[in-house]
């Protein structure tokens, strides 16, 4: 295997690891608790745009459950990053503007992670890349 091919493979594995680990982390830490404890979350969720607790919670669940799943499986990855990034910006700048960098470091790290995925794309180890290739030869 030549060096160029090795580098391409390493990039794809790195993007796969970034997608899967970041997606699972967001899903496990934020998404599933909201989904599994929906009623309790309705009582505590912030509603900065006065859309109502139900709508706000559904938007959060969409961003923290469905979008990470799409990213993990490599389907519409760049598009799936956008709601997550919007949610993070709202959380950091609107809901918790008083947070210091230390208090908001988890949010800022997620912002860096999902912005990196948005910029780099899913890599070749993604379902949409696999299906796109299969459709080309069908």
From TrEMBL:
InterPro entries: DoxX, DoxX-like_oxidoreductase. It is found in: Cell membrane. It comes from the Bacteria. Its main location: membrane. Keywords: Cell membrane, Membrane, Transmembrane, Transmembrane helix. Pfam families: DoxX. It is a multi-pass membrane protein. This is DoxX family protein. The chain crosses the membrane at residues 12-31, 51-72, 79-99, 105-127. Belongs to the DoxX family. It comes from Pseudomonas hormoni.
